[in-house]
Amino acid sequence: MNVLIIGNGGREHALAWKISQSPLCGNLFIAPGNAGTQLHGTNVAIPPSNFSEIGAFALSNNIDLIVVGPEAPLVDGIVDYFLDRPDLKNIPVIGPAADAAQLEGSKGFAKAFMEDYDIPTAAYREFDVDSLQEGLAYIEEQTPPIVLKADGLAAGKGVLICGSHEEAKLELIEMLGGKFGGASARVVIEEFLSGIEFSVFVMTDGENYVRLPVAKDYKRIGEGDTGLNTGGMGAVSPVSFVDETLMEKVEDRIIIPTIKGIQTSNLNYKGFIFFGLISVDQDPFVIEYNCRLGDPETEVILPRLKSDLLVHLQELAAGKLGTTPVEIEGKAATTVMLVSGGYPEAYEKGKQITGLENVVGSIPFHAGTLEEQGQILTNGGRVIALTSLGKNFREALKVSQQNADVVQFEGKYFRKDIGFDL
């Protein structure tokens, strides 16, 4: 099979790493890819937003399967683009169509979906600039902390937890005024849930589903989960507090009703679902849906997947998901993200990365890198995810941290406490 992966981050490097191991894999392309993905396939200089160029490349290179990494192309309708073109409709694209991708693309859509299908989530209301005064009044009725979420895609930075009514009111005004651009033209205000978060992933062909390993990521820039939100500073898998009892609740109350809701709503969904969950007194609630794999969770769940990912994706595309059982590695995995100085605020690119050849015992998944004249350079806020396996996450974490000291670039920063709360 000739496979095209869309995207250029750590998630896409992990997908390329895993798919390239399959005996089924023929030519593997990554558009646009990074300095790490080229170790497993061929990078192609096509932006994920250029559907026509992606389609032309797929035809001229006899692509049999397309795997979409990031959310934006899915929300913008890449699946629909292929289905609507007679010459492209027979090339399977792993991911939901635009209507189903609204589960991630619109917080309001997702909350209404959960309400319709009795899926446990925090109480909420949605406001726009015309209902600003109602929103300010609603804030007064809430007990802080108060959660504000930009309705649209905001690169993982559109969720604010406000400690007072005054802060929440100011943030609501700023968000509706364009703080996150068009993403915050509507804002969801929801009840704060106190508990511990975790991530559950499934693959679905719209009827059948299979579960992938459970993970937990760490979003805050500072140790002890302090400071600004990021795209993710590290992750662990499995998660010690997610036992069989909790997973049965997740399955019965969240996964199965979601799949049934997708069917009842006639949503075209053939891809990954990421359930961002929180356990409140051992009862699971949905914080958010994502319509693709998470990052950096992908960097810990794929190294724990023993079975052939490409076989599962082939079965998914054919509507036969589950024919081949999912096999999970018994070891634990931990990833530690090396980030650019200043991230998640202003940071510089183009810093030379050294020491990658000296990494031992970890897989360096490139998140924001490029190769230029034989040098590997930083090309993003999140630069390298160092994933290690061990008999438990602490053993794995020790190896990742040792290699975090080996890899060097100017301004490098990483959290040393991934998994601190487990």
Number of domains: 3
Taking the sheet with the most strands, its summary is:
9 strands, mixed
- In angstroms, what is the radius of gyration? 21 Å
Q: What global shape is seen?
A: globular
CATH topology of the largest domain: D-amino Acid Aminotransferase, Chain A, domain 1
* Averaged pLDDT: 96
List how many beta strands DSSP finds.
22
- Helix percent band: 25-40%
The CATH level-2 architecture of the largest domain is identified as: 2-Layer Sandwich
Structural class: alpha+beta
Number of helices, counting only DSSP H or I runs of 4 residues or more: 12
The top level CATH class name of the largest domain: Alpha Beta
- The amount of beta strand, in percent, is 25-35%
| Unreliable spans | none
CATH superfamily of the largest domain: ATP-grasp fold, B domain
| Distance, first to last CA | 41 Å
Topology:
Blueprint: E1 3-7, H1 10-19, E2 28-32, E3 42-43, H2 51-60, E4 65-68, H3 71-75, H4 78-84, E5 93-96, H5 98-105, H6 107-116, E6 124-128, H7 132-141, E7 146-150, E8 159-162, H8 165-176, E9 186-191, E10 196-204, E11 209-211, E12 216-217, E13 220-222, E14 226-229, E15 234-237, H9 244-264, E16 269-280, E17 283-290, H10 298-301, H11 309-317, E18 332-339, E19 363-366, E20 369-372, E21 375-378, E22 382-390, H12 393-406
Parallel strand pairs: 1-2, 1-4, 2-3, 4-5
Antiparallel strand pairs: 5-16, 6-9, 7-8, 7-9, 10-11, 10-16, 12-15, 13-14, 15-18, 16-17, 18-22, 19-22, 20-21
